[in-house]
Amino acid sequence: MKFINTLFLSIIYIFLQNNISSQVKNIGLPGIKNYKRADYRGGTQNWSIDQDKNGNMYFANNNGLIQFDGSSWHKFSLPTQTEIRSLKIDSSGKIFVGGNNEFGYFQNDEKGNLKYHSLSDLVDKKDKLNINLIWRIHIFNGEVIFQSFTKVFFLKNNKLRFINAPTKFQFSFLVNNRLYFQDKSLGILEYKNRKLQPIKGTTIFNDKEIWSVFPLPNNKMLLATLEKGLFISDGKTVQPWETEANAFIKKNTSLGGSIIKGKFIVLNSVLDGVIICDLNGKIIQHLNRQKGLQNNTILTSFIDNKNNIWLGLDNGITFINENSPFSYFDYSYNIGTVYASTVYKGNLYVATNQGLFYHSWNKPFTDSPFTRVEGTISQAWNIQVLNGVLICASNSGALVIDQNKVSKKLDTKGYFGFKKIPNHENYIIGESYNGFTIFKKTPSGFEYSHQVDGFDETTNTFSIELDENYLWLKKDPFLYQMTLSEDLRKFVYIKKHKDISSKYSGIGSLQNINGMVYFQTKNHFYRFSKEQGTFFEDKKITDLFKGIPAINTLIEDSEGSLWYAYNESLGVLTKNQNGTFTKKQAPFSNLSGNLVNNYISVNTIDPQNIFIGLTDGLTHYDSKISHTFITKPKVFVESFSFPGDTILTGNIANNQQIFTVPYSSNHVKFTFSSPTYENQENVTYSYKLEPFEENWRSWSALSIKEYTNLREGTYVMKLKAKNSYGIESNISEITFTVSPPWYRHFLAYLIYFIFLITGVYIISNRIKLKIRKNRYYETIEQRRLYLEKESKIRHEQHELEKEIEKLKSDKLQIKILAKDKELVNNSLQVVKKNKVLNGIIHKLKDIDTNILDDSTKFEFNKLHKSIVKEVNTDKSWKDLEKHIKNVHFEFLKRLKEKYPTISPRELDLSTYLLMNMSTKEIAEIMNISTGGVELARYRLRKKLGLNKKENLIGFLMSI
């Protein structure tokens, strides 16, 4: 049982060791991000690096302390405005720094601002001038230790003490919880019991400058010197470490280094960048300016909390994404855009936009540039191994590659790729720029056979598959279904499909899975049944892609895993030993936007060696490396500012306080940060301000948000981040209150209430007084109204009496007019009678009385005299004229006054017209004809100045 347990533990140890070892790859380059002075706005040299518990990075720079939170850079200077050479952060967040004759610490104040507190002020003035440069800071056994060339200071419980250097210190080292100092005369000293104790046998280093000490297995230590190389010590003897790493350091000198997980050593050099070696001194990676660094002089290196590397350079800062299963071959390896890759006879071949290149494929991998295959200088679309022959499809034609050069050109037309023909093992078919070509395998290799007739359309991608019955070609927007003749010389059947399903439109991709041709649309996979002549869905394959965005390309690799492309991103369904699949999508999000659209290239040599083509080179992916590098990101509201104040909330340890914002400053701004440094440009944020917003804002790379004109109240700003792997952080939040304006403050409302009560009281009294006054005035008014009413009644009574009198007068006038009319009529009768009598008189005159006897003559004369007497004695007409003039005296007077030129005759006519007499009656009275009356009327109208439309009688009545 004990043996089994021992064996089990040994297996676990080997597994863990291999798992850790695989984190530093010797194939390709890790992801490198360079930060220039223009980025961090500081000095050139960066001497020391550390990280706080929030993940923020700090750099000891020539211009001061540089802070980086993943989104923005901040600089903090010493009071002396001098450089900082060392820094160390303790568990409480204090940032201890050291410079020239100055040391102390930065600490956040209540608003999150880093404030400097000098410790050198605690040193006596005579000793302060001899502090010199503080090169190293350690936290050891509850003490903070500052080491310069002349002294070492110990800070504990805010008390400072120091020890002078026996001769002169070089540097100090904290290794395996033991603190060492190098003295120029005494060798290496160990700090024990508050004293420096020399270690025997270490004076050998008196002529050497030790920059770093690393722990090794079996209680050994590795010492890195500036110019003398690397040495290994077992506590008794010291020997040179004769390894590749030592040869490199001797040649390029060393400025110390750091150690990764106790398994890999990072060695900084002055002349040629940085190397990473294993514990046996074998160089695994060498990074320099040619490989992507911006400077070859590495002043310091630091391993962050994700086991990635930060380098402080002589000019700039560099981040190395070491803890990743991806490494890259970029322009420094002499290759461009990669369309395909394959391994053949010990070489890795890549088809690029600049031709075909190769690199030896040996273990360990040799770190050197790719070499162009002789004879390939144009676009290479594909490189394939078919029937043991390496064939390149390029713009120059179909090329056979042998001995790393073009051995035969099968055809001069441009080709996209080649496929084997089922049931024709000695033949392959090539897709050219304008159709298909058959190549035949002969004892001397492949030879051009013939062009296939029946299809000569231009294509621009290599998207064909063959089964035993058909050649399938996807050429947007159609899927071509074609049958080759038995002699392979022509297509005897061609059919175009625009859709393969009645449910889903379009054709997404064409692929071969497990030896069968599949057609995909909207992540639904179909096969073709020749017997039924229709496409049918394979539910089993379709189910694998549930929850995956719509894909546009699918490739089955040599391990049976399914690689798919979507939205310029990549994912894989890794095939397990039991036939199931595991989805992996997050690790490949870093490649988004760098894949070659429509030419996705995945070359799986084995699970540890997978090559993926990129627009700017080639990436190597080791699927066996643990994905623990994918962690949940942290997110902080870095700053909260409003007019007049800024609070660096990201620096406050306990961010539970509620901030108060004056109403006059209700324009607030937030900045966000997520200390995520790998693929930092793909970090996105989402937020909402409660209760101002109900829903989370959409994901955005912007790390600033402003709100204006907020009303008074309590608000909670909630924030979350998502890294490039699609992992969301926990929610970070801060609470703040916007104070109301003075006129909406509680005291203001209290004053308003008092004013209201007072106002109500005053108004109530005024209303009561006004009511009393109103009642008094109402009484007076009522009396006045009563009197006015009484007066009005009297006036109305008087007017009524006058109206009655008027009515009586009018009635009398009417009676008079009636009598006048009657009198006129009677007068007219008299006139008529007199006229008749005059006529009788005239006729009597005509009678000859001489012929009459006397008696008759007497009677005749008597009758004649009687009639003449009657006529002469009748004065009724004159009485009538007199009466009319008396009755209408006022009318005639007004008419005469208004029209002085009017004649008496016209006055009579006006009177007759006023009396509404007819023309005939007027003619009889005036003893004229009716025509004479009309003429008299015309003359009267003219004298009165009336036009034809005006009524004469109406006008006269209006006078």
- N/C terminus separation: 150 Å
Instruction: Please count the helical segments.
Output: 13
Q: Give the low-confidence spans.
A: 1-22
Strand order of the biggest β-sheet: 1-28-27-26
Mean pLDDT: 87
Structural class: alpha+beta
Number of strands: 64
| Shape by Cα distribution | elongated
User: How large, in whole angstroms, is the Cα Rg?
Assistant: 61 Å
Name the beta content range.
35-45%
Helix content: 10-25%
> Largest sheet, described in full?
4 strands, antiparallel
Question: Can you give a write-up of this model?
Answer:
- The protein has 959 residues and is an alpha+beta fold.
- Helix content is 24%, strand content 38%.
- It has 13 helices and 64 strands.
- The strands form 16 sheets. It has a 4-stranded antiparallel beta sheet with strand order 1-28-27-26.
- Strand 38 and strand 39 form a beta hairpin.
Main traits of this protein?
959 residues, alpha+beta, four-stranded antiparallel beta sheet, 24% helix, elongated, disordered N terminus
